[in-house]
């Protein structure tokens, strides 16, 4: 193992110097967005055209895959439109860069959720995670099972609700220098909680494939796997590594609070994200982020192993992959509108019961 010196190996203060961090949309780009939203109001999707904005989005796709791995755009005119209009437009906007992938959510297998399987309204439904409700809970550094996570801030909480980002490669470099044996262990597979048959899957935190670093991190799913019958035991090095990832990430990352109109994108193979809790309020402070996750057309090839196929389904570059129930009969870019089979429903139910236990209860 050697230190990696590449654009996605940044520290928080260095990210501020990136061209597409705090990038303010130009008047022409905002004009194109407003024109598109007006066309949607008239039910005329065919009239939507992005010219200057598409050129910017091509550059952003390159920055996400081969640059810093994260961008922050500012100035999307969210205050002039309804949440429903914004959600429909936002999905179209993300489709300019890639293929939206289905997400999880309540009643996700209901026909009425066909659209919302690809756009999630991130808002508080409870003060803590219970019965599948969205909460204001803080989350540690993690990745989602998508190539790119995309968040559009519609409204922000008055108190709390900060996001945090950290470069996975910078964390790897720091750990390699101070804890080389633990760093090496994170290239080895460990058990993860999984919604497929068996209830768990083996997966490594870090891999390097064809010269590209790729990561998948959850601070809870490896721990929760220990509640699943038959899952291997986590090694002490794996447990220490999971803790160090959080500690080092806090030291080398960046904290930000999205403002209305901010559009944040993160390459899940390169950048970890986290969030702080917030106070539930209504009106202007009813915190709402719209989430779309997608596979970019310029995404990387992934290792063709059993563990990666179990999580991603497709290893090929530029293909739709990952998402919720990745090995379901329909590809991940298609909505699930039919009831699950008896076997699928059984394993999903087992997964959800373990998921809501809370990893803090089993440490």
Rg from Cα: 20 Å
Q: SSE order in H/E notation? A: HEHHEHEEEEEHHEEEEHHEEEEHH
Q: Indicate the structural class.
A: alpha+beta
- Relative helix content: 25-40%
CATH topology: Double-stranded beta-helix
Assigned CATH superfamily: Clavaminate synthase-like
Structure characterization notes:
The chain has 363 residues and is α+β, with helices and mostly antiparallel strands. It has one domain (12-361): Clavaminate synthase-like (Double-stranded beta-helix, 4-Layer Sandwich). The chain is built from ten helices and 15 strands. It has helices at residues 12-15, 27-41, 52-66, 83-95, 168-178, 180-185, 221-224, 236-252, 306-312, 342-355, and strands at residues 21-24, 70-74, 98-100, 120-122, 139-142, 148-155, 163-167, 190-193, 200-203, 206-209, 212-215, 254-256, 263-267, 271-275, 288-296. Strands 1, 2, 3, 4, 6, 13 and 15 form a seven-stranded mixed beta sheet that branches. A hairpin with a 2-residue loop joins β10 (206-209) and β11. It starts with 11 loop residues before the first helix and ends in an 8-residue tail after the last helix.
């Amino acid at each position: 193992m050697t230190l990696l010196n590449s654009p996605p190996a940044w520290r928080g203060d260095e990210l501020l110097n990136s061209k597409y961090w705090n990038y303010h949309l130009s008047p022409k780009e905002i004009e194109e967005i407003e024109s598109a939203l007006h066309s949607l109001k008239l039910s005329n999707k065919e009239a939507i055209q992005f010219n200057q904005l598409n050129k910017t989005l091509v550059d952003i796709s390159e920055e996400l895959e081969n640059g810093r791995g994260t961008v922050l755009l500012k100035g999307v005119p969210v205050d002039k439109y309804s949440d429903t209009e914004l959600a429909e437009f936002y999905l179209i906007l993300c489709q300019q860069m890639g293929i939206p992938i289905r997400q999880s959510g309540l009643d996700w297998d209901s026909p009425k959720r066909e659209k919302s399987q690809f756009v999630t309204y991130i808002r508080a439904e409870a003060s803590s995670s219970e019965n599948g409700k969205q909460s204001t809970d803080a989350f540690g550094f993690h990745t989602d099972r998508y190539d790119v996570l995309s968040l559009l801030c519609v409204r922000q909480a008055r108190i709390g609700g900060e996001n945090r980002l950290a470069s996975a490669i910078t964390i790897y470099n720091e750990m390699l220098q101070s804890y080389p044996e633990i760093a090496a262990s994170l290239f080895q597979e460990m058990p993860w909680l999984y919604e497929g048959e068996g209830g768990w899957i083996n997966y490594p935190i870090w891999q390097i494939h064809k010269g590209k670093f790729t990561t998948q991190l959850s601070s809870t799913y490896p721990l929760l796997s220990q509640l699943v019958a038959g899952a291997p035991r986590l090694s002490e090095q794996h447990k220490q590594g999971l803790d160090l990832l959080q500690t080092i990430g806090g030291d080398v990352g960046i904290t930000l609070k999205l403002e209305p109109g901010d559009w944040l994108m993160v390459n899940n193979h390169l950048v970890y994200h986290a969030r702080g809790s917030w106070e539930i309020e209504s009106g202007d402070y009813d915190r709402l982020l719209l989430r779309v996750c997608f596979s970019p057309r310029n995404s990387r090839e992934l290792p063709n192993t059993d563990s990666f196929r179990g999580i991603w389904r497709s290893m090929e570059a530029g293909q739709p992959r990952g998402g919720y129930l990745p090995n379901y009969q329909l590809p991940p870019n298609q909505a699930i509108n039919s009831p699950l089979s008896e076997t699928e429903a059984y394993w999903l139910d087992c997964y959800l019961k373990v998921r809501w236990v809370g990893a803090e209860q089993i440490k």
